[in-house]
Specification:
The structure holds four protein chains of four kinds. Chain A is an alpha/beta fold. Chain A contains 17 helices and 34 strands. In chain A, strands 10-7-6-18-29 form a five-stranded parallel beta sheet, covered by helices on one side. Chain A has a five-stranded parallel beta sheet with strand order 20-27-21-22-23. A four-stranded parallel beta sheet of chain A has the order 2-1-3-4, with helices on both faces. The longest helix of chain A is centred in the N-terminal third of the chain and has 20 residues. In chain B, the strands form two sheets. A five-stranded mixed beta sheet of chain B has the order 2-1-3-4-7. In chain B, strands 5-6 form a two-stranded antiparallel sheet. The chains are: A alpha/beta, B alpha/beta, C alpha/beta, D alpha/beta.
Chain lengths: 649, 287, 392, 143
């Protein structure tokens, strides 16, 4: 038997104008289990609240029903009231007789009748309410940032500056990401290294940032506030503490490997640093091109190293980190354009893709900034092809957003550094950012030839075998054009990193059809994800330019702070729970939950629910065929009881 | 069309090979009941058992029902007719058993008979397939060229009835139900233990075999089988009071196929429809 | 007269209703016109044709007949527009009033009257066989569907004979279609006469159902693509080269005669390659012939250049210098090949013309893959057009 | 006194319930036959709730949820759409008037749509008359 207290509010006369409140209180008093029923002008006022608190103590009430405005307005207030009076805050039901009764009718008979029915339903429900306590978990205040490109660097610095400890994990041997490969950036033509290296250095010097380069995340356990992440530290074969970066070893090393940093344009030593301003400024040995690892003899680097920093016995090691939040900023790759045989990338040496051209322009690049092609000559005519693979149902339907702008930048650099004619083959010039249109106009004035038509074929020129012919239709004139050029630059689609599936699996992220990570809400929560405590920033979410990436990095840092700035975190109380006795192990709940809260316990053969991840939506409870799942505060019994009460009158 | 005797011999041959090589500890098939016309489900565990295996036109039992009886068997062989193979596909989709843990002995069969009436089972009351959709070894020649009629054709006159008549029909039928749960027992898809109707918290319906309780049990069970029922007709054959449950299950299966473009247990890579969604499902299905 | 024109949207509505809804999807990026083999050599421009269709501009009739439906543009279109359906729809709408070009009226008339485009007598459809081969009957496994071109066109009749002879070598049971059948209707459909196509198709379907045909072998890729795409799914249709490839692998067909290193290049017919996805079968057949050196042309497989015969092109008069088959012959010569092999009667006809008009018939001969295989198996049917490798 | 139907409403907290409140704050009037149960998401609705509602004598059941894509829990209403569609087909085949069970997507900002749907639905149910089929006359089953 329960002892229910019903408190009817007049809300001034908002309610009393179309509901006979005293009659309602009188009606309530007559209902079974109702021990006290009162009405008052303003239940939410202090005297009103005190009245409820006193009655709870005086009448030893174990359920409270407040018949007033919408629960969305004051449920929180009255929960605090009954909690202060010693009653569990969830033993409360609000009956909405203002927004959903008194304000929507002017017939007092109809209003009172409906109020009675709603109140009766609430009494049925109140009888079955159970006390709930929301679990409080402590929150680890450290953060892990995955990906050391400009997004990861920016987020790490922002968080570190607020005093939080940050672990920055980068797969490559240096941070900087693709931005460090560029020479200039649009639209200001700032030198990319000049604006990036200070931040890279700040990351290295920052006491709160632990830099983990040449590392990959291998396992993620735990949940928001309490992630337990294992990172694989790939063997560098160089002891970074001893090494003082004199780089003598890199001169002596005979090993030759393809330089991934220079997009394969040149070879680099087996022991190497990718580029002069690399952070950390420490070399690594690449096994696949080191003569010692291949043939078993050499070890020249070991001989010349005064610091004795070379250590061939090193092997991969696993490090473990506890963090409260994670920011995934794994960036992008350019689409491999080899399958698009019509452009002849990989077949004709004169065909380059965008990152290769960035390296050609870069003074630390393979040609030290001089625009010379693979055959050593300077091109006299260059064609830049837009939308290679982008905006194309057969490849990637999305627009990669930045290629128009960097293609314009290339055109400017080609015109500045060479005497070549430059053609741009485009469908639309998309220059919508701040200062972008002005940059576009400036390039037009540098006499770059714009041809409105997608490039459709690159083939060797019949009469000048060294040169290439680019075919397209200039749709403005309707003429089919053949452009004799020396160099063809492709602007390929920006796509997620090739291992995006692995990252998505590790952090329980879903991806769109192209592999970009899915945000919780495209407009209102672009940086949060369906996994609580995991945030995303930069191009891994969708193609964007550097300003937007930095803005997102700052946003993600702020969102991560909302979690790690607190020691404690209150979890939802109205989560779901599996009653193991009734669970038949069909795993429907595991299949439907968008948050991955239910999991299947192999030994017991039943499902269980990780309450930290559960949001309390109740989906699992309704798909469970043997109704074994209890959706706290909205259990099957409570809902059925309320329905019965509502239908009784 | 390979006749039943030949299929029986092939079944025995394969069962013997599997049990001899100990590739499987058990072969689910049929054996002789109390007479020729009433076979029984049978789990052959040794080469000696193989002699008892029988297959004839009365072997309607859906052996997929017994898969869960052998949880610790690493691998199970099972004789599977067309509908039974679809039941296996659904069980695999719902991860109750793994495809590699099954040796499916496919039986193309037509002309099955109902032991109770000794009449040919009207193919319109079943899924209308003759060849198993999934098998490792086929025990007979695939049946070709049978005039296949849509399994949902039999619904036409029930759908044509006006709703009062249909209500009277179904109320009359479901009132007959004595809640013996034979339909649940016979159904390979009803593996929940406990079933929702056995629960007390909440007590969805009264346990007594009266109309309200019967209605809640059957309507909810029709919903639980939506997109999962493989239309084998066993529930109706098992029902002691002869309620044509297959009709309602067929209607739900037809609606699911129209709304979600997927028939139950046809393709291994499908996901059961009610634990899946498509953003582009049209809102018309709610009208 | 003012230069301003208002869009005639009823016309684009009609085009869309005739099967060209994809008009809406095109954002005029120029990939199709940049890919189309006709754009560099004629005033035909597929993008402009679609644009005129989008807004219903008049003047569309001048260049709506230039397309040979080679599907290169469809495969490359970034918006996935079914451009061939648009071309067919435009032709259907505009040619409804009988505004067919002069050169097409004869072939459409013959189809309407005699069920084949060559004004051949319907009853004489199987005369080329000289009663040597049986008509199809239900217990046979394959219906050998002879395209009208190999039944009536003098040059291509030889291909009918070679394929029939080869069929007997494979040991499968097959039969010829009765004379009551008519053209599969591919070309007339692409020319836009959808009603005539429907009539032709129904007649064939009735014949198929009456004999409950299940499996078919076609000589012409045009029949292959039409049966697969337009005749419903209940027929399994293979091209002749696919069957040959299988039978060679099974050892049922063994080429013997060594061709002594003769250089051959293979032209992928658009309807066998891009429309039906068959690229390797014909090549395997050629490679099975001992001593035959196969050279690939620069534009081959998915990038193959059309011979110009599709979409009614076989019957259209093209100006000198505006013929794709001429360019293709030059490309074949560039590989150093002395034999241009292909697997479609339309291509054979177009290339035989070009070889003569460019008078290079001494430098290169045009052969169907089946003719080369038959020659290598040293089977000679009664009249021959000369062996390719008169070695001795 | 003319027949006053009893209509059960099940509304999702984030969208339809908030929409209903908005109808109140903008003082839109609609008939008072609707009695609303608040649940956290339309996907919380177990089909058996609907059968139970009709057994309890509801003359009409109105379910309100967020528009597909707006669900606070991302995919909840997408599952609900399928489950409630199957429920509707089962009730229809059993012989219940299909108009008695209705599902509407009503967002938090569509107060007027809520009022309009309730008004329209109440009139429709009034016309159909009392629901006697599934209704349990003597309430012998107490939950």
């Amino acid at each position: 038997m329960s002892r229910i207290g019903v408190f009817v509010c007049h809300c001034g006369h908002n309610i009393s104008q179309t509901v006979r409140v005293s009659e309602l209180a009188h009606f309530a008093a007559g209902l079974p289990d109702v021990v006290v029923a009162k009405d008052y002008r303003f239940m939410c006022s202090t005297p009103g609240q005190d009245m409820i608190a006193n009655d709870i103590r005086e009448h030893r009430l174990d359920r409270v029903i407040v018949t007033a405005c919408s629960p969305l307005m004051h449920e929180h207030t009255f929960r605090k009231v009954i909690e202060k009076a010693g009653l569990n805050q969830y033993l409360l039901t609000i009956v909405n007789i203002r927004e959903q009764v008194s304000w929507v009718t002017d017939d007092i008979e109809e209003g009172t009748a409906k109020a009675k029915a709603l109140l009766n339903g609430a009494v049925y429900r109140a009888r079955l309410l159970a006390p709930l306590s929301s679990r409080v978990i402590d929150v680890n205040s450290d953060v892990m940032v995955v990906g050391g490109g400009i997004a990861g660097i920016q987020a790490a610095l922002e968080l570190a500056n607020t005093g939080k400890k940050v672990y920055l994990v980068e797969k490559n041997s240096t941070i900087g990401g693709h931005m460090a490969q560029f020479d200039k950036t649009f639209p200001t033509l700032d030198c990319s290294a000049c604006i990036l290296t200070p931040k890279m250095d700040a990351v290295l010097q920052h006491p709160n940032i632990t830099l983990l380069t040449y590392c990959e995340v291998s396992e993620v356990k735990g949940y928001v506030g309490n992630f337990d992440i294992t990172v694989r530290q790939k063997a560098r074969y160089v002891n970074h503490d001893k090494c003082n970066a004199c780089l003598a070893c890199t001169e002596k090393c005979p090993g030759k490997g393809i330089s991934g940093w220079d997009e394969g344009l040149i070879k680099r030593k087996a022991i190497h640093i990718p580029f002069p301003q690399a952070v950390p400024q420490r070399p690594v040995i690449d096994r696949d091109s080191c003569t010692y690892f291949l043939k078993g003899k050499c070890r020249l680097c070991e001989k010349v190293c005064e610091q004795k920093a070379i250590d061939f016995e090193q092997h991969d090691s696993f490090l473990n980190f506890k963090v409260g939040a994670v920011i995934v900023a794994t960036g992008y790759d350019l689409m491999d354009t080899r399958p698009l045989i019509q452009y002849g990338y990989g077949k004709y040496p004169g065909v380059y893709h965008a990152l290769e051209v960035e390296r050609l322009f870069n003074s630390a690049g393979p040609t030290s900034g001089k625009v010379t092609m693979r055959d050593g000559k300077e091109p006299q005519a260059i064609a830049i092809l837009h939308c290679v693979g982008s905006r194309d149902k057969n490849n990637y339907e999305h627009c990669s957003r930045v290629c128009c702008m960097y293609s314009l930048k290339f055109a400017h650099l080609f015109r500045e550094k060479t005497s070549a004619d430059v053609y741009q083959l485009y469908i639309d010039i998309r220059a919508a950012g701040k200062g972008y249109e002005e940059f576009y106009n400036r390039i037009i004035e540098e006499d770059v030839k714009f041809i409105r038509g997608k490039g459709t074929r690159v083939a060797p020129s019949a009469d000048e075998p060294q040169r290439l012919i680019v075919e397209a239709e200039d749709t403005i004139t309707g003429k089919f054009v053949r452009l004799p050029v020396d160099m063809v630059v492709l602007s390929p689609a920006m796509v997620p990193r090739s291992d995006y599936k692995e990252i998505a699996r590790l952090f329980n992220l879903s991806t769109d059809k192209n592999g970009f990570f899915m945000e919780r809400h495209p407009k209102l929560a672009p940086l949060a994800t369906m996994s609580e405590g995991i945030f995303i920033a930069g191009v891994c979410q969708s193609p964007k330019d550097i300003p937007d990436t930095v803005a997102q990095a700052n946003g993600a840092a702020a969102e991560a702070l909302t979690i790690v700035s607190r020691q404690k975190m209150e979890l939802e109380a109205t989560t779901a729970m599996v009653n193991p006795a009734s669970c038949c192990g069909c795993q429907n709940c595991v299949r439907v939950c968008p948050y991955g809260a239910p999991f299947f316990n192999e030994q017991k053969g039943v499902s269980e629910i990780n309450e930290a991840l559960c949001k309390g939506c109740g989906l699992c409870a309704s798909v469970c065929p043997s109704s074994a799942i209890i959706a706290r505060h909205f259990t099957n019994e409570q809902v059925l009881a309320e329905m019965e009460g509502l239908m009784e009158f | 069309m390979t006749d039943f005797k030949q299929i029986e011999n092939n079944l025995k041959k394969e069962a013997k090979k599997l049990l001899e090589s100990a590739e499987v500890p058990v072969v689910l098939a049929y054996t002789r009941g109390y007479d020729e016309k009433h076979p029984m489900p049978f789990a052959a565990k040794s080469v000696a058992d193989v002699e008892k295996i029988v297959f004839n036109e009365y072997c309607n039992f859906n052996m997929a029902r017994y898969i869960m009886r052998f949880p610790d068997a690493a691998k199970i062989a099972i004789a599977a007719k067309a509908a039974d193979s679809r039941a296996l596909v659904v069980l695999i989709q719902e991860e109750k058993v793994r495809r590699e843990d099954l040796v499916i002995l496919g039986i193309p069969a037509s002309g099955m008979k109902d032991p109770k009436t000794d009449q040919l089972i009207d193919s319109r009351t079943t899924g209308g397939l003759y060849n198993p959709v999934e098998y490792d070894i086929l025990l007979g020649e695939e049946i070709r060229g049978q005039k296949t009629v849509s399994p949902y054709a039999v619904l036409a006159d029930y759908e044509a009835m006006d709703k009062e008549a249909r209500w009277a029909f179904w109320k009359g039928q479901l009132d007959k139900c004595i809640r013996c749960y034979a339909c649940r027992k016979a159904c390979p898809m009803c593996y929940c233990d406990p079933c929702f109707i056995d629960q007390n918290k909440p007590r969805w319906a009264d346990k007594a075999p009266q109309s309200p309780g019967n209605m809640m049990y059957h309507l909810t069970r029709f919903h639980h089988l939506a997109g999962r029922c493989i239309d084998c007709g066993e529930c109706s054959r098992a029902c002691p009071v002869g309620i044509p449950l297959y009709l309602f299950h067929k209607k739900v299966a037809k609606e699911c196929e129209e709304m979600f473009g997927q028939a139950a247990g046809m393709k291994l890579e499908d996901k059961p429809v009610l634990v899946d969604f498509r953003v582009e499902d049209s809102d018309q299905i709610l009208k | 007269m003012s230069q301003a024109i208002t869009p005639y949207l009823e016309m684009s509505q009609a085009i869309m209703e005739a099967g060209g809804e994809a008009l809406k999807k095109c954002y005029q990026c120029g990939t199709c016109s940049g890919t189309c083999p006709w754009t560099p050599i004629t005033h035909f421009n597929i993008r402009k044709l679609v644009r005129y269709g989008q807004l219903g501009f008049d003047g569309i009739e001048e260049f709506m007949w230039g397309c040979s439906t080679c599907k290169f543009c469809v495969d490359r279109c970034p918006r996935g527009v079914e451009i061939i359906d648009i071309v067919t729809a435009i032709r259907n709408v505009y040619s409804g009033g009988g505004m067919l070009p002069q050169s097409l009226r004869a072939f459409v008339g013959s189809l309407a009257a005699r069920g084949n485009p060559w004004s051949g007598d319907q009853a004489k459809r199987n005369d080329w066989a000289g009663q040597k081969y049986p008509l199809y009957a239900p217990e046979m496994e394959y219906l050998f569907w002879t395209c009208c071109t190999v039944c009536y066109d003098p040059r291509n009749v030889r291909i009918a004979k070679t394929t029939a002879a080869l069929l007997n070598e494979t040991g499968i049971s097959w039969g010829l279609p009765a004379a009551e059948v008519n053209c599969c209707g591919e070309s007339v459909r692409k020319v836009g006469d959808l009603d005539l196509f429907a009539r032709l198709k129904q007649k064939n379907l009735d014949y198929f159902q009456s004999r409950n045909v299940a499996k078919m072998i076609t000589v012409s890729p045009h029949c292959l693509a039409t049966f697969n795409k337009e005749y419903g799914e209940d027929y399994s249709v293979v091209h002749f080269t696919q069957l040959l490839d299988k039978k060679i692998k099974e050892g049922k067909i063994k080429p013997k005669k060594d061709f002594g290193g003769i250089v051959v290049t293979y032209h992928d017919p658009c309807y066998l390659g891009r429309h039906s996805g068959v690229y390797d079968a014909p090549r395997n057949v050629l490679k099975a012939i001992p001593g035959l050196k196969l050279m690939e042309m620069e534009r081959s497989r998915e990038q193959s250049m059309c011979c110009g015969g599709g979409g009614g092109g076989l019957w259209m008069e093209k100006l000198k210098g505006e013929r794709l088959s001429d360019l293709r012959i030059e490309e074949a010569l560039a590989t150093g090949a002395t034999v241009l092999a292909t697997a479609c009667p339309y291509c054979i006809t177009m290339f035989e013309d070009s070889v003569r008009t460019l008078n290079v018939d001494d430098k290169i001969t045009v052969r169907d893959v089946t003719e080369l295989l038959l020659e290598s198996m040293e089977i000679n049917i009664d009249e021959s057009v000369g062996d390719v490798c008169a070695t001795d | 006194m003319s027949f006053e139907p009893k209509i059960l409403g099940i509304a999702c907290n984030w969208c339809t319930y908030t929409g209903a409140d908005l109808a109140g704050t903008t003082r839109l009037h609609y008939p008072q036959n609707l009695r609303v149960v608040r649940v956290m998401c339309s996907s919380r609705i177990n089909p058996s709730f609907i059968f139970r509602a009709f057994q309890l004598g509801a003359d009409g059941v109105l379910v309100g949820g967020c528009h597909p894509g707006d669900c606070h829990y991302n995919t909840g209403n997408l599952y609900a759409r399928r489950r409630l569609a199957v429920t509707k087909k089962i009730l229809e085949f059993a012989g219940l008037e299909p108009e008695r069970f209705r599902v509407e997507w009503i967002s938090a900002s569509e107060g007027n749509k809520f009022a309009q749907v309730v008004t329209e639905f109440t009139a429709q149910i009034k016309e159909l008359g009392p629901q006697q089929k599934l209704k349990i006359d003597e309430l012998l089953e107490k939950i």
